[in-house]
Amino acid sequence: MFDLPGIFGTLANLLVVIIGFSLIVFVHELGHFVAAKWARIRVLAFSMGIGPIVCSYRKGIGFRRGSSEPEYLQLLKEAAGVAGDARENARDQLSGKISPTEYRFSALPLGGYVKMLGQEDINPGAVSDAPDSYQNCPVPKRMVVISAGVIMNIITAAILFIIVFMVGLQSNPPIVGSVINGSPALQATAPGITPGLQRGDVITRINNTTTYGYRDIATAIAMSSKSEPSTLTVERPGVDEPIVFSVMPVKSPATGLLDLGVLPPQSTRVLSGNDPDLWSRLLNAEGLNGFNQGDELVAVNAQPADSPYAILDAVDHSDGKPISVTLRGDEGTHEVTLQPIRESQTELVQIDDSVLPIEHLLGLTGVLTVNAQASPKDTKQGLMPGDEFLRIGPLNNPSQPDGVRQVRALAGQSVEIEVFRGGAVVPLTVEVSNQGTIGFYQGSSFESSNIVGAPLKVAGKDSPASRLITRPGTRILSINNTPISTLSDLAPAIIAALQPDYLLGQGDRFDLRVEMRLPLPTQPDGTEPIVTETWTLSRDEVKQVMDLGWRLPSGEAVVNLFEPVIVIDKSPDPIAAVKRGLHESQRVMATTYLTFVRLFQGSVALKQLKGPVGIAHVGTQIANDGLMMVLFFMGLISVNLAVINFLPLPIVDGGQFLMLLYEGIRRKPLPIPVQNAVTMVGLVLIAGVFLYITFHDVSRLLFGGL
Predict the structure, then answer these.
(1) pTM, to two decimals
(2) DSSP assignment, residue 399?
(3) Which residue, 111, 153, 148, is CA-closest to 31?
(4) What single string gives the DSSP state of each residue in 669-681?
């Protein structure tokens, strides 16, 4: 939002988010205040902000630095002539001259509060017998007072959404850019239609909810039932009528939420405006040199291209042949050649409460590394991008999952490690945080080295690798005399060695000669511990390798070099904007309530919610997308605040409303001891959830790596 460099831009965006969040909370409290005045409840204070009082205003006294409360109480005492029960009469004498309400501006701009006579959320015993106290107000009016904050938040959200859709919001359209292999989207079914969503499909509705942008697709699927299929209404180019698909979403290992497995559309223009050095380092790390900032994608293999996904399509059908990409920049057109490699296999490994996708081939996997694409500033305690872990405490040559487990097991301890860097062994002593992290983004040596970690179990069973590797740290030098420099060379070597016999159907077992260097000292006579073993594979195991497709060394990272497709989500006229704003408020409210339902059903985890820290972090990122996105985000927060405040929990408005409902039915309030008990339970519950969510927010920010 602010074009300021580095930390200054982040701080400016954070300030915008804090101010916006504070105004939303302030509007909530303003609703309570206006309703209390309407109900003739004595309001003692209305504050903008919390914490120490900076200045205040009271009718009849005027502006004061700090609070005017001591001065007001002194005037009451003087008017009464005595202290004690004569104070109410004194207040009557001052009525019309000095207001009982103090308007405050407090030091911390984090919302505000209303202080009413005889009403304190966390102290139900703070009652008053005064005729204008909260307790002596009729129950229906008190219900209005309690509900007013939530109503104001909903009205505010609707106004914000109306403004946003009158001006227009930048958005990704609800179009399928690409379908991930093996995803639920490929299994989507519709009568008389070939199964699977396709690139270019426009998803207009999900479970009878209209989708206006790609974000609506992700939200609707995440909030869908994990036990029932979702219904997708799709408009497909070349098909006259909408197609109704049925699909069963599955949990994404990356997010832990139900996912469809589609990606948003990308444009043909390469990203621009990035630091040249950072861009160059990114291209080098990904092996994508030649994609200059601002270039336009023209063709792939001499065929016109309307999407960077055309590059991936060409790779899929390349049979290993080089891919020619034509780009047009300021200096004309130029060609970039990309060399596909064989795909590897992926096993999802559960580690504590997270899932790691581990790259392997028949269980052969690399050792834990510092991710080579990480920048040095993101790597702590003497580690460097590309380092291979040879030892973590007592564990030698740890695979990626074993290394992660070992680091977490050493939480809070100092540990000696060894890494392989630039052909040399580098010893280090590092401190493992209490969260089980050292300070680096993890990776695997699968595509950078021929070293092998402990054989990986596949689907919970021993893999073929366990029949070959007995010592983690072994380096595979060749297969049937084909040199192996990295583990990504394994698949081509196995295919080259076994394809003729496999295709001829000769036998059910296939032998490979594997030359390996064992992780043992060099012999006294100078010879290295090199052995040749026979590795026997079954036909099914060989088939797994033969069926592997093609990919780029950087995977699908090439697509991320291009700008996303952006459209302006704007209503055609003011009336439509009002309808859309009201619809968006209702949709967000329903989604928020549904989130709590999914929490109990298990398709959404508590740690996936965001507290103030997470909201602030997301807000600073959203602020970069302009004022309308900030207003849209604030509308979302306003609706969420309304919903959360009206949950049937003690100390929030919803719990207070239920107590009033009880009082209205029974003609007497809930006993004070019971109110105290439920308030304490609610306070402990909310504090516990707040701390849990905040812990995960901070962990994601500070310990996103290992």
Answers:
(1) 0.67
(2) B
(3) 148
(4) PPPHHHHHHHHHH
Please, are residues 638 and 160 in contact by the beta-carbon 8 Å criterion? yes
Task: Give the whole-angstrom CA distance, residue 537 versus residue 549.
Answer: 20
Q: How far apart are CA 697 and CA 615, in angstroms?
A: 9
In this structure, are residues 536 and 485 in contact, taking their beta carbons and an 8 Å threshold? no
Rounded CA gap, 132 and 618, in Å? Answer: 43
Q: Which residue, 594, 377, 360, is CA-closest to 459? A: 360
More confident residue, 598 or 118: 118
pLDDT interval class at 623 (50, 70, 90): low
Bridge partner list, 104: 47, 56
Amino acid at 680: M
- Would you call 92 helix, strand, or coil by DSSP? helix
CA distance 300 to 337: 10
pLDDT of 705 > 60? The answer is: no
Which pLDDT band, with edges at 50, 70 and 90, does 621 fall under? low
Q: How far apart are CA 687 and CA 695, in angstroms?
A: 12
Cα separation of 597 and 590, whole Å? 11
Long-range (24+ apart) CB contacts under 8 A made by 643-648 are 643/589, 643/592, 643/593, 644/592, 645/28, 645/149, 645/150, 645/153, 646/147, 646/150, 647/596
Q: For the chain, how are helix, strand and coil distributed in percent, rounded to 5?
A: 40, 25, 35
Contacts of 440 (CB under 8 A, 6+ apart): 370, 371, 374, 378, 379, 380, 383, 705, 706
Across 157-166, 179-188, 209-218, 681-690, least confident range: 681-690
Q: How confident is the model at residue 54 (pLDDT cuts 50, 70, 90)?
A: very high
Q: Per-residue pLDDT for 617 more than 50?
A: no
Choose the weakest-confidence range: 86-95, 182-191, 227-236, 255-264: 86-95
**How far is the C-alpha of 42 from the C-alpha of 288, rounded, in Å?**
69
**pLDDT per residue as tens digits for the range 531-557:** 999 999 999 999 999 999 898 888 778
Instruction: Answer whether 348's CB lies under 8 Å from 357's CB.
Output: yes
Distances (CA, A) of 392 to 79, 302, 396, 416: 77, 50, 7, 7
Do 258 and 251 touch, CB atoms closer than 8 A? yes
CA distance 497 to 516: 17
Between 122 and 288, the higher pLDDT residue: 288
Sign of the Cα pseudo-torsion (4, 7, 12, 16, in order)? positive
- 100 has pLDDT over 60: yes
CA distance 306 to 266: 9
In angstroms, the CA 293 to CA 314 distance is 22
- Residue 255 CB neighbours (<10 A): 11
For residue 441, with 0-12 CB atoms within 10 Å meaning exposed, 13-18 middle and 19 or more buried, which class applies? middle
Q: What is the DSSP pairing of strand 345-351 with strand 354-360?
A: antiparallel
Domains of the chain (ranges plus CATH)?
6-167+602-641 (no CATH), 178-265 (2.30.42.10), 266-342+553-564 (2.30.42.10), 345-548 (2.30.42.10)
Helices 653-666 + 139-167 axis angle, to 10? 150
331-335, 566-570, 694-698: which has the highest mean pLDDT? 331-335
CA 271 – CA 56 distance, rounded (Å): 51
- For 282-317, write each residue's pLDDT tens digit: 777 777 888 888 999 999 999 999 889 899 889 989
pLDDT band at 701 (very low <50, low <70, confident <90, very high): very low
